[in-house]
Amino acid sequence: xxxxxxxxxxxxxxxxxxxTGDISKVFEGTVDGSPAILTLHKxxxxxxxxxxxxxxxxxxxxxxxxxxxxxSEMIKYSLIHPATETQIKKYRKSEYVLVKETxxxxxxxxxxxxxxxxxNCKWIDTIFQQADGCATPCITESKEHVLFMDKEFxxxxxxxxxxxxxxxxxxxxxxxxxxxxxxxxxxxxxIPLLERIQQAAVEALAMHNYTTDKVKIYFHYYPTFYRAxxxxxxxxxxxxxxxxxxxxxxxxxxxxxxxSSTYFQDKTMEVCISKESYMYSIYSE
Length: 285
Prior knowledge:
Elements: E1 10-19, E2 24-31, E3 34-41, E4 55-61, E5 64-70, E6 74-80, H1 85-91, E7 96-101, H2 103-117, H3 122-131, E8 138-139, E9 145-146, E10 148-149, E11 153-157, E12 170-175, H4 191-206, E13 215-220, E14 229-234, E15 247-249, H5 250-259, H6 263-266, E16 269-274, H7 281-284
Helix pairs in contact: 4-5
InterPro entries: DcpS/DCS2, HIT-like_sf, Scavenger_mRNA_decap_enz_N
Family: Belongs to the HIT family.
Organism: Nematocida ausubeli (strain ATCC PRA-371 / ERTm2) (Nematode killer fungus)
């Protein structure tokens, strides 16, 4: 079967979570017997998942597929297959706690644990390889819509955005350097890079008739995957991960680095973390 038949082969098993804020549901299930995660975004949902008769694939890259399908109304979907237990835990509804991570803890516990257990970043390298030499904006072989590309980063729509509804606009800035895992690796020498990202965001948003005063530009901490990336999301949206204890604004990162090159290397970070997260074990030992 074609890869874009994955949605039709999804067999729902469990409702992992339901969010009334961004009106979404996340199902755990299988595709051809192996684990998969399906995220749906819509105005309203029934509790049951019904396999669609037709759908449109927007993007496919490594284990990630996304698109839309028509039910009574258009639904935005994101499908991860094959899904790891770590990815399934990320979407499972659970209790959150606030923890403190020292610089020493990051170096000796967090980073080694994250590099061992976090999702792989092969899909990021695929985007850079396929977009190399292309004039942007461009669409890659894996259907990634690259809006802007620099020698050190690129900007593309996030998997969760339907690429139409401006109120839920969501872009992702991906760093090319695999040695920058999180904002903790950033130094004063990276300030020009971060400022170029700010300017590139202006250009990428202009393609959608959007301006930077209508978006939040931020790092997640903890991030889902340990390859530096920045989120650009509409202020009008209620995407998870933008609250205190989960994110740090890009401008605050730049200002912190101006104060000290090791500002985020040395800083004790307060982090809001799910007890289902693969990172929680380092605090519960």
